[in-house]
Design goal:
This protein is mainly β. Helix content is 9%, strand content 30%. Bound molecules: zinc ion.
Length: 244
Amino acid sequence: MRLRALLLLTALLTVIPGMGAEETVSAFMADGFDPPLGLVGPKQYYRARGFRPNGHLGEDWNGVGGGDTDLGDPVYNIAHGLVVFARNYKLGWGNVVIIRHAYLENGQTQFVDSLYGHLNEILVQEGQQAAKGVKIGTIGNNRGMYDAHLHFEMRKNIRVGMFRSSFPRDYSIYWDPSEFIAAHRTLAGAGTTAALPINTFPASAPPVVGAPMQQAEAPLVKPSAVPVLRRGGSFKIDRYDDLR
Ligand SMILES: [Zn+2]
């Protein structure tokens, strides 16, 4: 009887959110984070719009040619991780991929979600382990809603999923993507694994925090007067002001 009670308790702890017990899968630790575009090939990209708390919660990366000149260009996974979302969410999002990464910070295991929006194609599946640098999709324009670009977010809170409106829109939930990447290019933990939490997203929308987030994005600014992410074999940070 005691064993049965223990099993029941274990099952309850597994399914009740907030009880501390979570489903996990074993996944490789990130050994460093790279930008999602422009690591290989001749194309150049610039950050058309940056991260702004309570405003734009990610970065828009665009080809320097403007317009749809970057439509179909490859988008790369920024670090080893697990694909936790890969669907067409429609609305202002279109095709979205979210990858969850475990990494070491001061000896502690931390988690972060990277989000890639408006993709023309999705080339990974939910539940798939994805190595750093793997092509996970291509730059899209959400069926003509925008000039083709990559909307890219990094979330320190791994419970947001597609319900941004239910969470604060600030640094308590998000990282500035370029700042995070610049500070985490090379990390300890290569070749080791971590227990990565899964099924952390709400199944339906939790209560909204503050005003609802707008779905559509404004037109992109032209590439003039913004830093260009130039091609570089090793992609050294100190060569790219936009990654500071
Ligand atoms: Zn955006």
